[in-house]
C-alpha cells in the first residue's frame, strides 16, 4: 500500500494529541520537539496469534501516522520475545508456543502490516527480534545486560506487582530485560529514538531507555497509548463472539463493517479520530450529528475502517449489503448485491415441505444447537425477513423467500445471516 506524506503544519505529536492517542510520554518537553524533525520509532507486536485484531489497531495506526508525517516506523515482530511471553496485562502465564507456531504467526502478521505501512525504499522497516535475541549467549547477556537491572526496581513495576499476586514465572520475569535489549539494539543499529506501546508497556519502555543511557550515555524516549474502552465499559474489540480479527477468514469484511456500524453513539466521534485517517475537521463535523443523522457518521466510520483493512471494493460491498439489510422492512427484498453477508446455501427441495424455524437456525449455525434456537425464538429474539418468529416450530417454506431466492435471518438487533436457495 502506498502511503503519502501529509504536508501540514501540524506535527505528528499534535495529531496524536488531538486524536486521543497519547496517555503518557517520558519527556513532555523534549518528545514534541524531536518529532518536529525526522526520527525512527518502533512498536513491538506479540506473534502469539496468526492475525491482529481490533484491539491492536491503536499502535498500528500510530505507526501509520508517524510515516505519514515523514518519520520512519519500525514494526517489530516479537518472535524472540514471544518465546518467553510478556506478563504485562495478563492474569496468568500464557501458553508457550513452539518456534514453528511463532514463525508461522509472524509471517501472517507481516502481510497485515503492509495494509497500513509502505515498506518500499526503507520508508518503514519490518524486523524480527528473533534475529538477534535467539543468538544471545546467556552468560554474556547476564554480565553485559543483566548487571544494569535492579531486581527491586523490576519488582516495583506495576505489571510485575499484579502478577506476583497470581504467580510470576522466572521466564516471564526475564521479559523486561529482553524488551529493553530490543530498544537498545534498535537505538544502536537503526538510530531508533522512540519506543511506543500500550499503557501496560510503560515499565518495559522506561527500562529500555535506562539501558540505553547506561550503555550509550545517550537519551531515548517513550510514548504510551491509553487502553481503549467502549462507552459501556467494555474492552475495545471484544464482542459476544470474541475478538474482531483483521483476517478476513476469521472475521469477514461484512462482519468487520457491522462491528463498526454498531458502534455506541457515544463512541462514534472518538473512534473516527482513532481508527480512520479522516481529517479532524471532518471528524468534528460528524461528531456533531445527532439522532437518526448519526447513522451517517457510523456509515463513514464503518466504511473507512473496513477500507483500510480490506480494501475499497470489499468496503463498498459491505456498505451496500448493510444498507440493504437495514432497509429490508421498507423494500421487502434483500437485494444483497455485494454478496458479503454471511450466507448458507440450502437445497431448494428441502423448503417444498418446509423446515421448522428452530431447525433452520441450527442448520445455518447461527445457533449452536436446536435447543439454543428454541430458546432464542421463545424469548422473542429471532426474526425472518425482519418479522419476529412467534413459535419455534413455525415452518419456513419457499413462499418466505424473495425473488432472488434469499431469506434473511436476524438474531437479536444486529446479527444477520442469509439463507440462499441452492439450485433455485
Secondary-structure topology with pairs:
Elements: H1 12-19, E1 24-25, H2 30-34, E2 40-45, H3 57-68, E3 72-77, H4 99-113, E4 125-128, H5 130-133, H6 138-144, H7 151-156, H8 158-166, H9 170-173, H10 175-190, E5 192-198, H11 202-216, E6 221-225, E7 238-239, E8 242-243, H12 253-261, H13 268-275, H14 280-287, H15 294-310, H16 312-326, H17 328-331, E9 343-347, H18 350-353, E10 355-356, H19 357-363, H20 370-378, E11 382-384, E12 387-388, E13 395-396, E14 406-411, E15 415-422
Parallel strand pairs: 2-3, 2-5, 3-4, 5-6, 9-15
Antiparallel strand pairs: 1-6, 7-8, 10-13, 11-12, 11-14, 14-15
Helix pairs in contact: 10-11, 12-15, 12-16, 13-14, 13-15, 15-16, 19-20
Q: State the share of residues found in helices, binned by percent.
A: 40-55%
- Give the tally of structural domains: 3
The biggest sheet amounts to:
6 strands, mixed
From the N-terminal CA to the C-terminal CA, the straight-line distance is: 41 Å
Determine the oligomeric state from the structure: single chain
| CATH fold call of the largest domain | Rossmann fold
Supply the CATH architecture of the largest domain: 3-Layer(aba) Sandwich
What is the top-level CATH class of the largest domain?
A: Alpha Beta
Describe this structure in words.
By secondary structure, the chain is an alpha/beta fold. It has three domains: 12-225, HUPs (Rossmann fold, 3-Layer(aba) Sandwich); 238-331, Orthogonal Bundle (Tyrosyl-Transfer RNA Synthetase); 343-422, Roll (Structural Genomics Hypothetical 15.5 Kd Protein In mrcA-pckA Intergenic Region, Chain A), CATH 3.10.290. It has 20 helices and 15 strands. Helix 4 links the parallel strand 3 (72-77) and strand 4. It is elongated and about 80 Å long. Residues 1-8 have low confidence and may be disordered.
